[in-house]
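Exercise 7b. Backbone tokens:
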């Protein structure tokens, strides 16, 4: 789905703000990074985005493929505990908070 289609669906009321924001974030992240550090091609519907809350806004920390995400989860949970700030995984279908 293109950015234009996502925006059009939001304007026409076919989707809500959270869904449109999440899908645009995935679209932009996959288009910007394009390749995971393991060599996998990143696609907007399969990209995994690590975000950290900074000053009440979610900021992108890392963009990975679904295969690399599990290998990073425990170290990210440790970092969340040490830093004391919320992290979350964001993907096309939703977001999941990371508790440290």
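Sequence design result:
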């Amino acid at each position: 789905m293109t950015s234009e289609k996502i925006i059009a669906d939001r304007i026409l009321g076919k989707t809500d703000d959270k869904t449109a924001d999440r899908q645009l974030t995935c679209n932009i992240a996959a288009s910007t990074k394009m390749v995971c550090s393991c060599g996998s091609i990143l696609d907007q519907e399969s990209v995994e985005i690590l975000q950290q809350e900074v000053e009440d806004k979610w900021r992108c920390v890392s963009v990975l493929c679904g295969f690399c995400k599990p290998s990073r989860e425990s170290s990210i949970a440790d970092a969340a505990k040490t830093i004391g700030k919320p992290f979350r995984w964001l993907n096309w279908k939703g977001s999941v908070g990371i508790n440290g």
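Instructor comment: The chain is about 40% helix and 25% strand. The chain has a mean pLDDT of 89.
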